Amino acid sequence: MTEIPAKKTATGRRKVELDPRLAAYKGVWVFVEHERGVTHPVSWELLGEARKLADQLGVDVGALVLGAPGPAIRRACDDTFCYGADVCYLIEDPVLANYRNEPYTKGLTHLVDKYQPEIVLLGATTLGRDLGGSIATTLATGLTADCTELTIDPDNRSLAATRPTFGGSLLCTIQTLNYRPQMATVRPRVMHMPERGSPRAARIIEERLGMIEESIITKVLEYIPDERQDQAQLTYADIIVSGGRGLKRPENFQLIWDLAEVLGAEVGATRPLIQAGWVTADRQVGQTGKTVRPKLYIAAGISGAIQHRVGMESSDVIIAINEDPNAPIFDFATYGIVGNAMQILPALTDVFRQHAATAKRAG
Amino acid sequence: MHIVVCIKQVPDSAQIRVHPVSNTIMRQGVPAIVNPYDLFALEEALRLKDRYGGRVTVLCMGPSQADAALRKALSFGADEAILLSDRAFAGSDTLATSYALAAAIQRIREDMPVDLVFAGKQTIDGDTAQVGPGIAKRLNLQLLTYVARIDALDLERKEILIHRRAEGGVQVLKTSLPCLITVLEGINEMRFATMDDMFRAARYPLKVWDKAAAGIEDLSKVGLKGSPTVVAKVFAPQPKARKAERIEVHGDAPKDLAATLLTKLFTHHPQLERHISERAS
């Protein structure tokens, strides 16, 4: 082995032969987050990732679909086959209509116990994190949160899950060696969205939940959809304009909104601005905020500290505006302008507006 | 009513630096603070106590220095503080941590029944959000995560009504006590400690529980032994090989810089031009 494990104990445990009972666990599973007729895109991203891991291991990809009976849930099953699933495990039950920890935990642990997958992946969403911790505890196995990279360790065929730690200053690779399944959560947008292909299979295995509403203690009285759906859209926005401490005063943040409006973009911010109350917390990009992967990310007055970087460095094109020529953001941005963001931002807004007007006349 | 609030002492991640050569965390001089998310949980518990009466017990697992976090909690008005501390807990991952904390809460509720357990939504050092759900599962408590508002508490009927942040919306949930609640940041604003409480906190005889005091007999469930996950490698993020292409113009006038950038952007990324034009129209 060329890698040097961080702890001695890890060295000893890495070489341990897997208990034959645990070696029987086969397959890479993805929990498909399906609520109110909509599947969260993170599920497709995870299926794409699961496909790669399963091909390396020579095993099947399983998709887990839970929800209320109806055409929407059947459609979700069909969709999983277009994103890489070989087999779809389905539990349909009216009590699964809204997400609740208790019935979902029961359904999932039942499937895991019966079909024994070696890896289970979930989205690191409010739902996935709620569910992941409960399932891992019930199954008494390891769960690694917020992974940014998943690979198979060639030495022992186990999952090597890499995640940022200490606010993104360091990365650590975590393994679950003598327990199965190995579980991990991954944030939306961290993994590539796979191309939707033609279905590679159509094998659906149905199981029953075996719960009645009266036995479930927590009741969903109401679901109130967000009025401003843009809150949720930051994660999947194609263009984002973000501001940081370099904007100096709260009123200068308006320059971010102005440019965003011209570009039809979403607005993001760094942690200090959230803490200072300039912008609401749902717009925070970074380790403790959202991970984004837009086609274009404009960072104004952002130094590029690691805590912000981990949330946006996968963007296709990054434009950085900062007064400090040595700011770390210039180490990974695509284009850099060294200058005063308060002057550059309105100039950008103007040229993009003019361009749009010209394009409109031409078109 | 009896509420247990779980808190953790963490290094202030905003001040953490990584040693450029050895890639290790430089802990010297980094202040230890109460995990900021836990303060929202504590304040929410104290507000319930203000309204309905009862007791708030704070529980913290960590080394002996973590008593500072507990004293901080006491200064805000918590009634009792317990430090769960034992060398056997060192190296615990989230599964082992939830085992130890659940054992301690079990021990607490043998003396006085517990109606509610509060925790922050996650810590700023581990960021996993797994320990709260783990404790709830082990103690068979109803789990309410990402709670944005507590609407009503009925101690007679042992019921609680809350708003929970979900994907793309809010769930209004009703459940029975006892339950475990992890609260969202911003749910409240922390009170100021009174002078009386600060004095009381400083003098307060903290309870320190080791594994035996917490009733933990099975040592295979705590520490490294009780942790399914193993840290195989720690390393610094790879710097990107390519630096940003600097946009420069003679005189550096903002207008010229912006125009140059736009030309460059749309020449090298024509798909972006199409995309932006479509949105603008």
Provide structural commentary.
- The complex is a heterodimer of chains A (363) and B (281).
- With 363 residues, chain A is of the alpha/beta class.
- Chain A has two domains: 8-215, 3-Layer(aba) Sandwich (Rossmann fold); 230-362, TPP-binding domain (Rossmann fold, 3-Layer(aba) Sandwich).
- Chain A has helices spanning 8-14, 20-23, 41-57, 71-82, 101-115, 126-139, 230-233, 254-263, 271-275, 306-312, 341-362; strands at residues 28-32, 34-35, 38-39, 61-67, 87-92, 119-123, 143-147, 149-152, 159-165, 170-176, 182-186, 203-207, 219-225, 239-243, 266-269, 296-300, 317-322, 335-338.
- In chain A, strands 7-11-6-1-4-5-12 form a seven-stranded parallel beta sheet, with helices on both faces. In chain A, strands 15-14-16-17-18 form a five-stranded parallel beta sheet. In chain A, strands 8-9-10 form a three-stranded antiparallel beta sheet.
- The longest helix of chain A is centred in the C-terminal third of the chain and has 22 residues, at 341-362.
- Residues 1-13 of chain A have low confidence and may be disordered.
- Chain B contains seven helices and 15 strands.
- Chain B has a nine-stranded mixed beta sheet with strand order 11-10-9-12-8-1-6-7-13, with helices on both faces. In chain B, strands 2-5 form a two-stranded antiparallel sheet.
- The longest helix of chain B has 18 residues, at 94-111.
- Chain B is globular, with a radius of gyration of 24 Å.
- Chain B starts with a strand and ends with a helix.
- Classes of the chains: A alpha/beta (363), B alpha/beta (281).
- At the A-B interface, helix 1, helix 5, helix 6, strand 7 and strand 9 of A face strand 3, helix 3, helix 4, strand 9 and strand 10 of B.
- Strand 10 (170-176) of chain A pairs antiparallel with strand 14 of chain B.
